[in-house]
Amino acid sequence: MSQTTNDHTLQLKRVLTLKDLVIYGIAFMTPIAPAYIYGFAAESTNGMLPLAYLIAMVAMMFSAYSYGRMAAVFPNGGSTYTYTQRAINPHLGFFAGWAMFMDYVLVPLIVFMVGASYANALIPSVPYWVWVLLIAGIITTVNILGIGIAAKTNQILVMFMGIVVVIFVVFCVKTIVGGESGTSLFTVVPFFNDEKFVMSAIISGSAMACFSFLGFDSITTLSEEAVNPKDDIWKAAILACLIGGLIFIGQAYVAQLVWPDVTNFSSADTALFDIAEKAGGAVLATLYTVAIIVSTVTAGLTGQASASRLMFSMGRDEVLSKKFFTHLHPKYQTPVYNILLMCVISVLGALFLSINFVAELMNFGGLTGFMFVNLSVIVYYFFRKKEMKIIRYLLIPGLGFGICFYLFINLSPMTLKIGFIWLAIGFIYAFITTKGFKKKPTTFTDL
């Protein structure tokens, strides 16, 4: 490979353990993620959101498995981009990375917006735009100082959110046992209520719940900074999905029992705050609000770090400007230009775009990336390597692809339109820079 010597100087520090990687993935998803969708999702599933989360967890673990299989054989940065590039086709890899880039760019953008909105609601005297700049400054500074610092910060913040979730569950259990909700602590109703069960509603709710898991894939962008990437990346992806899913299911379960009438929230957008207030009063509701703000910091740290690493990998392969995107900070060895670029994009987006618009676009990029990775497992292992293990390399990734494709085609027409425009821009850029797709990325010139 012609870039062996040059790439030797473009390496990131290996400092992340399995625990760091799992926490990183959970931090991206955020333990308190149900707060974002609970009201609408609980109503759409007729009070069976725990079942929807269970189905979503199983569905996402198919894709997590595929990410793990590809990370085991290609333990270097780039995630979706790298796997598709090396398993299927270098040019198709660019489009996979281009689509996923949309998702990674939008994650820190939307968390800036959500964090600033909740912070402004908590302290109205500080304007929204000030909160945006403050959150952006903290996240960007931590990421420039290094992934090791970001990992330690995430551990502290995830621990705090975990404590809040535990407190929330304890108060909910106390309310249930105390008889205030008029139901038993142990019941199958949140998973199956034969009087209200509608399959189409459960499927719709499961599709919605899947988006709480977006972010586990970010673990694979840190392969070059993992101490033992071949063993730890795939384990971390699956563990993050499993642990995150159980946390989501637990919160949804007790919340449903505390507030059985899912059509009677003061606002669907703040349903869990109503439940927190009922279970623990204003103090618990305020604590939950603070945890939501903290969750935006953890997701912002991981989102910004993942996007900057993806750009680093694409720059090293010269599908993006190598001089700019592979520049590392002389002291901290972090892709500082990429991090600052992400900061600027996120701040501008947070000031001028709407949360709903950004959230829908995230789904396009995330699901597209998941489909590419599932397809990469099938192509690489089953067809190229001729490893005829039907369950491992055909059935599981095939199910992962099918589920993601089903969710993808059910995105809103506007989301699909804008998403395909984004891909068209990528196509034009790639066509020009590769001279009609005749020039391969530098990494592949000698293959």
TrEMBL record:
Positions of transmembrane segments: 21-41, 47-67, 92-116, 128-149, 156-177, 197-216, 237-259, 279-301, 336-358, 364-383, 390-409, 415-432
GO BP field: transmembrane transport
Compartments reported by the entry: Membrane
Membrane topology listed for this record: Multi-pass membrane protein
Transmembrane is among the record's keywords: yes
Magnesium in keyword set: no
Assigned GO CC terms: membrane
Pfam families to which the protein is assigned, alphabetical: AA_permease
First-listed, main subcellular location of the protein, grouped into a coarse class: membrane
Protein keywords: Membrane, Transmembrane, Transmembrane helix
Domain of life: Bacteria
Domain Amino acid permease/ SLC12A: 48-435
Name of the molecule in the record: APC family permease
Lineage: Bacteria, Bacillati, Bacillota, Bacilli, Bacillales
